[in-house]
Amino acid sequence: MAPRTRFAPSPTWAPHIWHLRTAMYAWLEAKKNGWIFFMRLEDTDQERFVAWSADILIDCIKWIGIEPDEWFMGENVPEKWEYWPYVQSKRKDLYKKYALELIEKWAAFYCFCPKQQEVSEVTSNLHDHNCRNLSKEEIETKLAKWTPYIIRHKIPLNEHIIIEDMVHGTQKIDTNTLDDSVLLKSDWHATYHLAHLVDDHLMKTTHVVRWEEWLPSLPKHTLLFKQAWFEAPKYVHLALIMIIDKETWTKRKFSKRKWDPGVIDIMQKWYLPEAVFNYLVFLWWNPWEWETKEFYTKEELINVFDLADCNKSWALFDIEKLNWMNSKYIANLETNELYTRIEEYLTKYDKDFYENIFSKSTKEFNIKILKELKTRLRYLGEYKELTTFIYGEPNARTDLLLNPKMKIDNIEIVKKWLKLALDILNSDSLDFSELDNIKDVFVEKIATEWLKNGQVLWPIRVALSWEEFSPWAFELIYILWKEKSIQRIQKIFEKI
User: Fold this and answer.
1) What is the distance between the alpha carbons of residues 484 and 473, in angstroms, rounded to a whole number?
2) pLDDT, tens digit, for every residue of 99-118?
3) Could you point out which of 61, 248, 311, 360 has its C-alpha 20 to 30 Å from the C-alpha of 38?
4) How far apart are CA 63 and CA 267, in angstroms?
5) Is 355 helix (H, G, I), strand (E, B) or coil?
6) Model pTM score
């Protein structure tokens, strides 16, 4: 039987970066080695369950380009695989059965302590010697009286357990430092400790990829598999994510509570999934020390990826580095492909702009804009912001016409140069269909006037865009065409 690994998120809120990273790493390892990669929904924590979270998780996995071999597929499942169901809340009866079997194997015990102790998975003492040492007769008496109970893991005392992790190596743990965690609550809902034991056993999981905060639980899970007489999977605990706190400007752990960027944020800004995939892979992993290549296709990553090469240290999520990488992917897209993706983005996230502005412009006009913006866009969500002055009619800003740094400090000179631009634009000899032709005509005319290109083109660019930062004058003339270019320059010329 082929090895099996899984992605098993909890639907407690919108998926975060670590969800995506975990799924990607498990998927890459599975694809490289010919394993089965499946997705399971771990919704045992019903108090924190968020109904829409499962659908969002599916959207995110599909968006990044990961297709599990087996999974729950939301509500409408076309077929059921061998280990169905893949949702833990639908496997409730299984957990009680195995919890009782653990009691028979002396690996768990009934705990009849007051209800309030169930609030935490840890009792006030690591080991509740009262309940774990009850006689068979005492237990049967309490059960006969319908005394409420929970089931706890019975940690063996005065022993050592060897744990192994593919990233963090081998450690020796004193069992006296481990608590008797809750396995089954009084409502018969399993905790993660029991549910993951049962499911990974029954679903034949051979490799578990999860984030580092579960590493302290590895001794308990190693014990549970041993006590249940099950073969334990190999574990990989991935390092946590750091981010620069915007308030203190210091590094801290990535946090949902502080509204750090989530997968939905990245999707809605319309980063390219292939760029996000490439960026996240290299936060915790490098193929070889001497390898300097930064851009990989998924197929290339599948060939070189190895979980054993993952870094132990925490990684810093740098949005500026992601912006840079994403901009490179955008710049390398064929223009028609970029046009298609812009359409997809606008129809999904900005229908008003798409229907009232974008779609009412010709494809030729939109393509010209895209050709210019390809090297400026950090993510496709910037398209509307960067093109407002092109599609719309912004207010003419005369305050930007003067630029002391460029020695443009005389409004009369500015008017002269704007008049020069109008004369060129009104010339019948100017071919607006070629950017190079526009450049050649303007540069030649400026040279005959013994002027510097920058000094003349600055006020022309401002007159065309009315923005401090925009494409250059030639590019704007090429995009706006003759009529609109003349109209804008004429308007600001008359205003000054």
Assistant:
1) 13
2) 999 999 999 999 998 754 44
3) 311
4) 8
5) helix
6) 0.83
